[in-house]
Amino acid sequence: MFRSLRRTAAAAVLALAAALLPSGAIAQPEKADAAYDVLVFSRTTGFRHDSIPAGIDALRSLGSANDFSVTATEDPAAFTPANLTGYEAVVFLNTTGDVLNDVQQNALQAHIDAGRGFVGVHAAADTEYGWGYYGDLVGARFKSHPAIQQARLLTEDRGHPATAHLGESWTRTDEWYNYQANPRSSVHVLQSLDESSYSGGEMGDHPITWCHAQGSGRSFYTGLGHTAESYADPAFRALLLGGLRYASGVAPANCSTSSSTTRTVEGEAYSSGSGVQIAGHAPASGGQTLGYIDNGDWAGYATVPTAGAARFSARVSSAGAGGAIDIRSGSATGPVLGSVTVPVTGGWETFTTVSTDVNAGTGPLYLTFRGGAGALFDVDTFTVAYGTTPRALASDVHLFYYPWYGSPAVLGSWRHWQQGGRTPPEDIGANLYPALGPYDSGDFTTAVARHMEWVKRSGAGVIVYSWWGRDSYEDRLVRGVLDAAAAQGVKVAWHLEPYANRTAASTVADINYLNTTYGSHPAFYRDAAHGNKNAFYVFESLRITDWSPLDQVTGNSIVLAQTTDTTKIAHFSGMYTYDGIAGATAPGWKQAGDYAKAHGLIWAPSVAPGYNDDRAVPGNTTPTLARDNGAAYDRQWSNALDPQIGGSPTWVSVTSFNEWHEGSVIEPADSTPPSGHGYETYNGAYGRTGTDAETAYLDRTALWVGRFTWVGG
Fold it and tell me: Which InterPro entries match (predicted)?
């Protein structure tokens, strides 16, 4: 939220930090991993890949840069209990055939099950067919492959260190294995292949990279890595490094597994519908699509159940307006199980895949379509996955959310975007430009619905709604935002802002009003770990000295003060910080966290990707915090999660999802903003460029959410 008052305090923090840091010191994005050792095994008794030397060189290079040692061998005598003890992880690099005898197999099995890690690369799945344990360890066994060719991979989990650097999809050339059985029911899938993007896929649902627990140890496998060129590809090397870090135990990740089945359906095979027709397109499956889709049209599939449904994906194309698909149960007006946005792909025969987690329903599946004027998009095929348990959104990660924007198209005039004397739509009061353009917070079906999809993608389970009093603009938008949040399984907590004449007594009345008015809504946040209490953050709580009236509501509500000064939190339930700059040095965080833990209070430090309000406040000379291609965000998260710095938070709050004036957003920013205004972009964040960089901070949030959740929040 835009407040110049905070900048003065931030300046003092940065000045102190500058005085304490040595001259020329550069903050690293994360703490270095503890040193560890990796054994790379590449013995072959079947086909031998000529890429093995390149793979060994790549792993050695990664080790030199990331403080792990690599011992490469093809001697199975290395597999003794005494020797394996020295290695945190064992890599099977394009091994083939029967490479270990029974004694050596027993040594490896005991090593992994005792808590060490395994990494299998490509032909590791073409190894040890007679050893049952190994089949479980690697996850799937090789069946066949077509010729080397380009294909598109879909990233299913961006919270894992192996895939955190990737976008929704990744197109590359390799040799694509088919496996004897689909491993999805026994592994945690990180990437899958879009079989429509290449020739020779035989699996339909086609996992290609995955991880899972093995005994007390960890297993990571990728089917990539046939070609020597792969090992010079920075993105593939990053995938290998992330897999190694997970397997070695230095980078925690969610690799939980669950049983699932999938069903793929031709879009044009609908049993009932309104407005839709069959369209012919040669690249489509069967040469046809569900087409001529306009806003409000729908299609029903009487033989496709929603009971047990957990994930929906669709192959779509659009040379029209794009839009969204709502997945419903029972009828075209039945409960919405999930929603997914369909982008403009540039042509009716240019297809892409969109996907989303869904809730289980009770009746047959219906798809309803919404968007702008004219033709929206076509649907080639869609797939429903059943029986999986989607990774739960993190109820202990909260994103500050601002519903204060307006536009002439919805509100009738600009609101907030003109901050700093700007003239929207191209000239706005922000140093970054939204990927959605200057939207209206009352545009629930497009902008707000997309926001909630993005929140879900980040892994955070709660938004903290900026609320400025009863009958305010923001109050009038609450129900629409709650409805959009509920469609994605996102919950809503409250940021009580310092509106005119706010008092402790009026704050108590506000809490009662919000509970009474909105408390029955399914998206209204209640913290299960703290007696199902709802949550309220009080911004600038230090403006008021006597908060004793809060005693009337803290029996059933969590109320947080914005401070780390533990002498200023009487009558509150805990503390948060909000400040988008202070997280770089975390002043007072450990003391606040330790105090909260000792007194049974909530500690919710705030982390931010950066801070820059220069376009919103022309002529500003107070500090900013550069994003540094993501390093600033990583440093703040790292500080928050380090007990010696961050004080073991109960929750982590993120400043912010969409406070555009202050440049603290993780909401996607346009990679090609209007020229002539000096806008920044996310280009270069975490090595991502162009449109792929637009979602870099959402995906990085998912990585940190996974780490916070994995270590127990």
Answer: CBM6, Cellulose-bd_IV, Class_I_gatase-like, Galactose-bd-like_sf, Glyco_Hydrolase_99, ThuA-like
